[in-house]
Design brief:
The complex is a heterodimer of chains A (637) and B (249). Chain A is α+β, with helices and mostly antiparallel strands and 637 residues long. Chain A contains 17 helices and 19 strands. In chain A, helix 14 packs parallel to helix 16 and helix 15 packs antiparallel against helix 16. The two termini of chain A are 42 Å apart. The mean pLDDT of chain A is 95. Chain B contains 9 helices and 7 strands. In chain B, a hairpin with a 2-residue loop joins strand 3 and strand 4. In chain B, helix 2 runs antiparallel to helix 7, helix 3 packs antiparallel against helix 5 and helix 7 crosses helix 9. The chains are: A alpha+beta (637), B alpha+beta (249). Chains A and B meet through helix 3, helix 5, helix 6, helix 11 and helix 12 of A and helix 1, helix 2 and helix 3 of B.
Chain lengths: 637, 249
């Protein structure tokens, strides 16, 4: 298979403008002859559907939620980056590009990241014009703050609800198009397969989640904006419904899956409290500005009330190991250090999987009032969840799976290896490398939807022409029938275990063997254990009800079945990558000080996996060429 | 802890529903209300009873998917939280907890405690946006907006569209939702150009969807998980009156 990234010729800073200059267009009066399917309605999906609808294409947009506005982009808190240089602090497109490439540990594609930095400025203009209530200075100009991994203030925000407000902006633009009739919205509808005709994506199979009806939809192109797959680990910061099904079924139809082992782990989540727990809640990283992270020096103190542990018996391990960054060490490093002290038996809380984030010193220094002003809402949220008051007793935090950098392989045009099938936002792999910097996920979702896809899809459509299948072809019937059969097969098992039981066990394997730190022997065990668990699923799961009705257990079962396949691929990818980088830490590959050790000479590639169909997945490699930046080691000492 | 769950079961939109009571065991006070339902469902599946279908997604209080009227109150007994942020420590050992769907003519029941809130979508589609085209926006700082206005707009924009305001209202009025959406946009200079059309269209759609009228009881504000103020209703009434006087639909 030839992995052609289709990167335009010319200097990096001119690639996107030259692409736009030369790209073939569809004439305005011809656009209405085309149908485009968008799956997902988060930042990428809603912005793509709105923009393409506005251009004059017929768009069908699908989401599993009851409203497009409930997509999980809504939960992003911190902000969105843009190289506006409003602060005159030296920001530029090049600097945003460089920070993103470096933050991704030199495992992202240069040309895509540069384009992202370029269009970042348009995103802010677009969102402000839509009425997104960004934070403002008293003089009326936009306010900025700084975020991890950057030395400039380029993050725009709307209180702690930036994702919500950006999504509402995109949702409103989408709603306008729905009202105008250019976009037809299908809520509570789940994509379960992609239909290929002559090797090209020409439609999808969906299940109406209220009636259970399986139907097919035809289009000239299909765009997947279906988010990340963090729920493969069972517990994550993702919404409960986040899943890999659309992307995975596309993978089974020929789209390569890239860098699946790159999963970002966020260090400041509220720890697990028991087996029943359904998800993890992220606490803002800003807390680490004033909170000091510690655990007891002696394992026997771990169960004590933290207030009874003397100062000299506390180990402020981040300050000890990383004196220059201290408690503000980057996400991957802070997360790993927390796991290490818990592995030593010094973890706190009921489960022993937690570390303290202590505001005692800050309260003594600044007064409780100041801390309340800075973090009051977060302290309230912590109290709601744990029942504890962090002003009086240190908070407990622990890392959790947050954002997945891997996804469907796409070229510069965001097209997968299946012609006519696109992937945007978290569902693709291209912009974040092995690690994602804060405030850059929102940027990518909107960049893809508002400013990239409208050009790149146009080229494909212009070259392909408006003809499309009727939907009565065998390919459509076969795909719909295979979805019905697949669901019925799940319903027929009638075993003893619940879907949740099996999902939880998959999560334990994934977290223990392919979590913050991985090694060869653990990963080898995982690739044995996951297929066994998959066997158990297909012989012993119990899904009540039928397919012809609203059936949440059936929905969940289909998603978990896909996670059981993806999980194995994640571990195989992690096994292949004999180096440490970003969200992937192989314990065999670390420096003497315990830091991540990359092997650029052997692993500066994107791993793109072809579905094996029983024969095991096949690895293809896209070599990453850095023409304008030099690969350097990230150091935080 | 062990509790009794008296919960609404309904097969689909067209059948009648009724309450069923289940004894749910091994509930931990640290569980969220939805985690309790997860545990109850595991138990029901093992007992051969069809599990309870309920709406939920982010489980961190922002997506607005979760609903439920718990012991007579939308989202349960705690103030300013969604159902996913309601914790079992708010209930007593052995307590019978009554759980119903959001009740409103405009929110038909789909199954069990899940309702169809797409009437809200249609309200937004009739005017809850600013008509701006992608690609031609001026520089973001070309439209200065005072901090006070941006903050007030954000207060309104914080609405998560869950529908608790409707469920708590004796008239099933959607005024708090509609007014928050209108205020978010009407307050900003970008949204002013379409202000009159927006309020006339959105209010018209709200009425035709079957939501009732506002009679200033303010149960909506009390039930709102985001603390949206009824002051926005006053703004909407003012904007609507002005628009009705000066505009024709």
């Amino acid at each position: 298979m030839n992995l052609d990234a289709k990167i335009p010729e010319g200097p990096l800073s001119e690639k996107w403008s030259s692409y736009k200059r030369n790209v073939k267009l569809v004439a305005p009066n011809n656009k209405r002859k085309y149908e485009i399917i968008i799956v997902g309605s988060g930042l990428a999906g809603a912005s793509a559907a709105a923009s393409l609808g506005e251009l004059g294409y017929h768009v069908k947009c699908f989401c599993y939620q009851d409203s497009a506005r409930r997509a999980h982009s809504i939960a992003a808190q911190g902000g969105i980056n843009a190289a506006k240089n409003y602060q005159n602090d030296g920001d530029s497109v090049w600097r945003l590009f460089y920070d993103t490439i470096k933050g991704g540990d030199f495992r992202a594609r240069e040309a895509n990241v540069h384009r992202l930095a370029e269009v970042s400025t348009n995103i802010i203009d677009q969102c402000a014009a839509q009425g997104v209530p960004f934070a403002r200075e008293y003089g009326g100009t936009l306010a900025n703050r700084s975020f991890g991994g950057a030395q400039v203030s380029r993050t725009f925000y709307a209180r702690g609800q930036t994702g919500q407000q950006l999504l509402l902006g995109a949702y409103q633009a989408l709603s306008r198009q729905i009202g105008l009739g250019s976009v037809k919205m299908y809520e509570r509808t789940e994509m379960l397969d992609v239909v290929l005709v002559d090797g090209k994506a020409k439609g999808i199979v969906v299940r109406n989640m209220v009636t259970g009806e399986i139907s097919t939809h035809v289009a000239n192109a299909v765009v997947l904006c279906t988010g990340g797959y963090g729920n493969c680990w069972y517990l994550s910061t993702n919404a409960i419904g986040c899943n890999v099904t659309a992307a995975w079924r596309a993978h089974k139809r020929g789209a390569l899956f890239a860098n699946p082992c790159y999963a970002q782990i966020h260090p400041t989540c509220i720890p697990v409290s028991g087996d029943y727990q359904s998800k993890l809640t992220l606490m803002s990283e800003s807390l680490r500005n004033d909170g000091r992270v510690w655990v007891p020096k002696k394992a026997e103190d771990a169960k004590k009330d933290p207030r009874d542990i003397a100062e000299e018996d506390r180990d402020y391990y981040l300050e000890r190991k990383y004196p220059s960054y201290g408690n503000l060490a980057p996400r991957d490093i802070s997360s790993r250090s927390a796991q290490e002290v818990c592995d030593e038996g010094r973890g706190v809380g009921k489960t022993g999987l937690g570390v303290y984030l202590d505001f005692g010193d800050a309260i003594n220094r600044l007064g409780r009032h100041t801390i309340e002003e800075r973090y009051g809402n977060l302290f309230d949220m912590y109290k709601e969840i744990t029942g504890e008051l962090a002003y009086e007793k240190p908070m407990r935090i622990f890392p959790a799976i947050h954002y997945t950098m891997g996804g469907l392989w796409v070229d510069y045009e965001l097209m997968t290896t299946v012609p006519g099938l696109y992937a945007a936002g978290e569902a693709n792999f291209s912009d974040h490398g092995a690690n994602r910097l804060g405030a850059s996920a929102l940027m990518q979702g909107l960049a893809d939807g508002y400013f990239v896809l409208p050009y790149t899809i146009g080229r494909f459509l212009a070259e392909e022409g408006a003809a499309r299948p009727s939907g009565d072809e065998d390919e459509f019937k076969e795909a719909a029938q295979s979805v019905r059969d697949y669901n019925q097969k799940i319903l027929n098992i009638k075993g003893k275990q619940t879907v949740r039981d099996i999902h939880r066990r998959l999560g334990q394997i994934m977290w223990n063997k392919c979590g913050m730190s991985r090694n060869k022997s653990g990963l080898k065990e995982a690739v044995q254990e996951i297929p066994q668990l998959r066997e158990e699923f297909w012989s012993d799961v119990h899904v009540p009800g039928t397919g012809e009705e609203l059936n949440q257990q059936l929905e969940k079962a289909g998603r978990v079945a896909d996670f059981l396949e993806l999980g194995e691929l994640i571990c195989r990818d992690a096994l292949d990558r004999e180096e440490s980088c970003g969200g992937h830490f192989r314990s065999e590959h670390q420096t003497e000080e315990g830091e991540a050790l990359r092997h650029d000479d052997q692993f500066a590639y994107v791993s793109a996996w072809e579905y094996g169909n029983g024969r095991g997945p096949k690895l293809h490699k896209e070599d990453l060429k850095y023409e304008e930046v030099k690969m350097v080691t990230r150091s935080y000492k | 802890m062990n509790i009794k769950l008296k919960i609404w079961r309904q097969k689909n939109r067209d059948t009648e529903g009724q309450f069923e009571t289940y004894e749910v065991k091994n509930i931990h006070s640290d569980m969220s209300f939805l985690e309790m339902l997860d545990v109850a469902n595991e138990q029901l599946i093992h007992e051969g009873v069809e599990p309870i279908n309920f709406d939920h997604d982010c489980r961190e209080g922002i997506c607005g998917a979760c609903s439920l009227v718990i012991n007579g109150e939308p989202h349960g007994p705690e103030k300013k939280v969604t159902t996913c942020q309601t914790y079992m420590r708010s209930f007593e050992e052995g307590e019978t907890i009554v759980v119903e769907p959001f009740r409103s003519h405009a929110f038909p029941v789909l199954r069990d405690v899940m309702v169809d809130r797409s009437s809200f979508e249609r309200v937004i589609r009739s005017g809850g946006f600013i008509s701006v085209a992608t690609g031609a926006a001026p520089d973001a700082n070309a439209i200065p907006i005072s901090k006070e206005i941006a903050d007030e707009s954000m207060d309104a924009a914080a609405c998560i569209g869950c529908g608790a305001c409707v469920a708590s209202c004796k008239n099933s009025s959607a005024m708090l939702f509609v007014s928050a959406k209108a205020a978010h946009l009407n307050l900003m200079p970008q949204g002013k150009a379409e202000k009159s059309r927006r309020v006339l269209n959105m209010v018209d759609t709200m009425d035709s969807e079957g939501f009732g009228n506002c009679s200033n009881t303010y149960a909506c504000e009390a039930a709102c998980p985001k603390g949206i103020s009824v002051n926005f209703i006053n703004q909407l009434n003012r904007d609507y009156a002005l628009a009705a006087l000066t505009n024709k639909l």
